[in-house]
Amino acid sequence: MADSTFKSKCPACGTGLTITASDKLVGKLVKCPACGVASPYGKFKRLIPKKVDDHTQVTLQQYKYVVRLHDEVTGKSYDVPKGKHLVGRMTYQEPPKADIPIVTGDRGFSRAHFNLEIMDGRDGLNHAYISNANNKNVTKINGALLPGTDVVSLRNGDIISAAQTTLRFEMKRVFDESPKVDTGEDPFGTRI
Ligand SMILES: [Zn+2]
């Protein structure tokens, strides 16, 4: 996809900016390098070029999420990409049941224990949802039983426990400090 640039101003501080447009940023929060304030991408309005003549070519910073499951027993951490996932005990069969396999000797932790979904919200923030993968094995969130087929939203720091396994859910919003040139391949490589 060919990039196109447009002239704009930071909605917070008014600094003139030349921005490389990207569909990937629609609905997302981006950070002005001049004042550091994060604003929705849609607030960076297109200006008629001849009316603005003091633009600075800049690279704005984009939010990204770090989403992980941290095993409090073994100390291991597991990255959780966006999308739907099945979390369960690591096995050495092929293919494994879980696409996020937890390395544990805890036989009470099922090979298909719970579902985890990470998705973009309309507010530009990530949202996370958990549900049981089967009804035989109990899952608890912060000590409370996760009922049957309920789908429950997770927040950073929530504790997921199952049998002898304790997983801390981590979902932190951070600025991507090293934006790269957009090659159309790297999901975090957007330049605007
Ligand atoms: Zn600004």
Q: What does it look like?
A:
It is built from no helices and 16 strands. The chain has two domains: 54 residues, no CATH class; 110 residues, Tumour Suppressor Smad4, CATH 2.60.200.20. It is 0% helix and 41% strand. The strands form three sheets. Strands 3, 4, 6, 7, 12, 13, 15 and 16 form an eight-stranded antiparallel sheet that branches. The two termini are 14 Å apart. The protein is mostly beta strands and 192 residues long. It is elongated. It binds zinc ion (ZN). The site of zinc ion (ZN) has 8 residues, from loops.
Share in helix: under 10%
What's the architecture of the largest domain, going by CATH? Sandwich
Mean pLDDT reading: 83
Distance between the termini: 14 Å
CATH domain class name of the largest domain = Mainly Beta
Shape descriptor reads elongated
What is the structural class? mainly beta
Whole-angstrom Rg: 21 Å
CATH-derived topology of the largest domain: Tumour Suppressor Smad4
As a percent range, the share of strand residues is 35-45%
Q: Helical segment tally?
A: 0
Largest sheet, described in full? 8 strands, antiparallel
Number of domains: 2
Low-confidence stretches: 179-191
Query: Which small molecules are bound?
Result: zinc ion
